[in-house]
Design goal:
Dienelactn_hydro, eight-stranded mixed beta sheet, Rossmann fold, single chain, alpha/beta, AB_hydrolase_fold
Length: 267
Amino acid sequence: MPAELSPCCVSGHLHEGTPTGVIEKITGFDVYITKPDSGSKAKTILFITDVFGWNTPNARLLADEYAKAGFYVYVPDFFRGDNIPHDMLQTIAPREPHNRSAAQVASDNTQTTATFGPWVTKHNEAEIKPLIDEFLKYLRADPLTGKIGAVGFCWGGKYSLLLAGEGSVDAAVANHPSLTTQEDYVSINKPTQINVGTNDIFLTNESVEQAKKGMLEQKADIPFEINVYQDAVHGFTVRGDISNLKEKENKEASANATIRWFGKYLA
């Protein structure tokens, strides 16, 4: 699996809507919390964002979708406010890319490299994983919390796989995970779903087949599924252009797949 990053990881579109959750401080983090109508924590989801962080409307609106389906959802700010700036969404993937000059393209690429490289170095696994573990410890200590699922996106997708591998969550969903290795896939020990597009630069079609083969051979007793969405690119589940019918369909299908998976394995 490729371990490098590219501008595709910091591209996409902001979604419109008004999030309905609340913000609380938990274990030192700001956390967006959105609840089912029942208020029950019996089926809890830890939402691990992409590099744009917890305060994008995309992340919060998607978390609200999960809550409406009956899940109690936490979206922590594991970056402590140091997410990749949201304005880079349009810098890297403008709505009219054909109107950019060669100079603008070069400038955008330079900005991406200058911003993203240091950020990835700072927010590495040795820094982030203990923060996630601390948050999970808090959730497990709450007697009202039932089963816990982890859903991760891009950068966060790797962490949902890691949590499924060590068994610290009851189920996991990894949406177009980045920075992964084959070991991340064959090490899963909890029911795991992966959603990826046919045009994902991090998980090529060949890499997806390799991951599936490894999981079948080494983890045949662990429920898993890999859903591949035609023409979908990296980030489609949370950063797709929902004004585009095909991208909207893929985004909604992946959200429904996640809800179905957690509905089954967090019950």
